[in-house]
Amino acid sequence: MAIITSKDLDLFYGEKQALNQINIEFYEKEITALIGPSGCGKSTFLRTLNRMNDLIPGVTINGEVQFNGQDIYGSSMDVVMLRKQMGMVFQQPNPFPFSIYDNVTYGLRLQQQTYTKEELDQIVEESLKAAAVWDDVKDKLNKSALSLSGGQQQRVCIARVLAVKPDVILLDEPTSALDPVSSGKIEEMLYDLKEDYTMIMVTHNMPQASRISDRTAFFLNGDLIEYAPTKEIFLNPKKIETENYITGKFG
Ligand SMILES: Nc1ncnc2c1ncn2[C@@H]1O[C@H](COP(=O)(O)OP(=O)(O)O)[C@@H](O)[C@H]1O
Ligand SMILES: [Mg+2]
């Protein structure tokens, strides 16, 4: 079932159009990879899904994004709620300069609901386990998250997102700043999370996209060129631009 649908979505930075008439549907409990050369609009598009572009001055958006059937740009949309339901993970791990424990509970403390210490302990453990970093950090939850390696920091950031129980996780090149071993661990972890979450992931890593994603969308110059099951995109692309990009013949 489609959980997110964008219809005729245009985005302008000032006068400059960065997205042209994007029509795409994302499906529940799948990983969708967004690929394409630098500057083609992948991050911009990802940010339209949880309205992170609202924070950038001079942005104009036309068209529609529906999330669970609701127009997210409609006046009745609660943007704080939207961002809770669509967690985001960035290229550079961005833990806050406090303890691992407080990083994971950060989003919970912004909510109205209050939790007991036992409940928080449990959420911290579950989230760090789901993010495959529990064994690394269980004996030092009160240490600064900044003392961890890059790969561990990124997994703690993913745990921080999981703690608020989002429906969707948006990932913008989540492993590209990491070494191959850390990157591989995160990739396996994301694959396992697919049971419970819908994920949309920008990646420059073609083997990674082909290993873990169900569908792949290829962007070029602000256009969505081709969108299909990942196997089709990599084995039998319909558009010459897609073929040139995935075979590295590009530009
Ligand atoms: N905050 C911004 N202000 C103005 N232009 C931007 C901004 N962010 C991105 N752009 C432009 O929009 C286009 C798409 O950028 P981006 O979405 O970052 O591409 P990608 O993630 O595919 O590398 C690029 O031409 C980029 O220069
Ligand atoms: Mg980008």
UniProtKB/TrEMBL annotation:
Xref: PROSITE patterns: ABC_TRANSPORTER_1 (PS00211), ABC_TRANSPORTER_2 (PS50893)
SUPFAM superfamilies, alphabetized: P-loop containing nucleoside triphosphate hydrolases (SSF52540)
Pfam families found in the cross-reference section: ABC_tran (PF00005)
Domain ABC transporter: 4-246
Domain of life per record: Bacteria
CDD domains for the chain: ABC_PstB_phosphate_transporter
Species of provenance: Vagococcus humatus
GO biological process, one term: phosphate ion transmembrane transport
GO annotations of cellular component type: membrane
Protein name: Phosphate ABC transporter ATP-binding protein
UniProt-listed InterPro entries: AAA+_ATPase (IPR003593), ABC_transporter-like_ATP-bd (IPR003439), ABC_transporter-like_CS (IPR017871), P-loop_NTPase (IPR027417), PstB-like (IPR005670)
Annotated GO MF terms: ATP binding; ATP hydrolysis activity; phosphate transmembrane transporter activity
SMART domains attached to this UniProt entry: AAA
Keyword entries, A-Z: ATP-binding, Nucleotide-binding, Phosphate transport, Transport
